Amino acid sequence: MALLPRRPEFLSGKMPQGLVRADDWHRRIAMLVSAVLIGLAALLFAKLGDRAQEVFGAIRHDYIYLPLVLTPLTFLAVAWLTRRIANEARGSGIPQVMAASRDPHTPVARALLSLRAAAAKTVLTLVGLLGGASVGREGPTVQLAGAIMVAVHRVFRVRISSGVVIAGGAAGVAAAFNTPLAGIAFAIEELAVAYEQRVAVLVMGAVMIAGLTAQGLAGDYVYFGILKGNLPVGSLLIAAPLAGIGGGILGGLFSRLVLAMRGYDGRWSGLLGRHPLATALACGLLVGALIVASGGTVAGTGYEPTTAMLEGGAQDFWFGPAKFVAALATSVSGIPGGIFAPSLSVGAGLGQFLTPLFPPEQAGLIILLGMAGYFTGVVRAPLTAVIILSEATGSHAILPLFATALIGDWAGSMVCRERLYHALARDFLPQEKAQTGAAT
Q1: Rounded distance between C-alpha atoms, residue 417 and residue 252, angstroms
Q2: pLDDT > 50? residue 13
Q3: What percent of the chain has pLDDT over 70?
């Protein structure tokens, strides 16, 4: 397809009246193409991620102590490659999209959402999964989706606005979890407040098309499988406060520790930043030891043990604490990878501690509330948490989830005042960092 002619008056945001309809069509076509590509890319990334975890699981099964060597060496190699070829690919990917959405036209924003950074992010995350890193693919999918959305809009000579970046990130969440409504909620709660009608329509269109593309190829699957039933009022009045307060406190603690060691003005971030490879190696050694001690359950996203717990299977009670430490060490290491899926696994482990207090038939829903409380404590986005978990499990326990998430949000804010992704986004904004440093 030939590139559309550049219109300086359109790129500046000032369009003649007669060009509005044509430019709107260009925007719609760019959004359609972007969303389809995001759905395809997310699905391919998910398949490759699952395969990487299977390969690591097979290797660990045959050589149970190999993670003591393989995992730290993987962390070291990935950290070195990240610093050498794409430093903007480090960490989750969601803070990068947040930072870029503030002013998409700066050189920093273009680097954060470049296809080079997205490709590096994808490959390095897969390498991390091959080595047993406790990472998710949802955060990297958000950065990948943002890069695809921006690249396609440039091909069609459509102005790159904050709404374009927000729509790309939201579509990434929807395609990664196969949860379209969660993508919209995440755009509103975390990426930006999409108050303009045009931005809201762009977000919803991108989310739905990306989700339908992934769903059409992968099937109408539910991420964690169908979870039936509901909690009686008596159980709800006990479980929601316990899961909300406990999960919120632990989630807030996770965020506070990450910011202390990786935040811009964190207490230990300067020390760890001066020794990035040694930090990655030490974190890898810790994760490798936890993998060996847990029989491999703390490696990767944690999807399989979490699904097993929701379906009534049992895990060791120390799975949750071990996954907490593994996810924290992986995040502190600075290698690319997300925290969505590991956070849901830690929350499931927390919920398992509460199950002895309730009848056995309620165990799955209690674990689900643990996921809601902890995930909200980390991310501080209760609406997103509720919609992701309800869509990802097919559960209709909306009221218990909302109650737990709201309590978790409050408890998390008591432990860590700053919202994790917003605080981490500052690390990708040199001007803001300078202002913050001057203010302090």
Answers
A1: 8
A2: no
A3: 83
Torsion of CA 356, 359, 361, 365, to 10 degrees: -60
The continuous run of DSSP H or E covering 324 comes out as: helix 319-333
The yes-or-no verdict on residue 217 having pLDDT over 80 is no
Please count the helices (runs of H) and the strands (runs of E) in the chain.
21, 0
pLDDT for res 398: 82
Quick check: 415 and 256 in contact, CB under 8 A? yes
Say how far apart CA 165 and CA 152 lie, in whole Å.
11
Q: What is the pLDDT of residue 395?
A: 76
In this predicted structure, which of 69-83, 111-125, 175-189, 337-351 has the lowest mean pLDDT? Answer: 175-189
Alpha helices, DSSP H only, in 1-93? 8-11, 20-62, 67-85
Write down the CATH number for the domain with range 24-218. 1.10.3080.10
How far apart (Å, rounded) are the C-alpha atoms in residues 214 and 218? Answer: 6
What are the pLDDT digits (tens) for 401-438?
989 999 999 999 999 999 998 899 888 876 544 454 43
Q: What topology is assigned to 233-425 in CATH?
A: Clc chloride channel (1.10.3080)
> What is the three-class DSSP state of 136?
strand
Could you say which DSSP state residue 338 is in?
B
Q: Which of 1, 29, 23 is nearest to 11 (CA)?
A: 23
Weakest-pLDDT range from 54-58, 193-197, 208-212, 413-417:
193-197
340/375 Cα distance (integer angstroms):
8
Domain with CATH 1.10.3080.10 in the chain: 24-218, 233-425
d(CA 10, CA 17): 11
